[in-house]
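A quick aside before the break. I want you to see a complete sequence-to-structure record at least once, exactly as it would be stored in a machine-readable document. Don't worry about memorizing anything.
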Amino acid sequence: MWTQAERELLLSSGAVDLKLGRTVLRTSSAGPAALAVLNSAMGRW
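That is the input. The structure line, written in tokens, reads:
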């Protein structure tokens, strides 16, 4: 999580604050998840 000061600095620098849901996708699982979505969309799964 970001501290309030870090969040304010990011927002004042032009960052956009958004949420994609309650689930957190870790970097260790983002790659395999993206590949699964692509394979499913391409009919390879």
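Two observations worth writing down. DSSP finds two helices and no strands in the chain. The longest helix spans residues 27-41. We'll return to this after the break.
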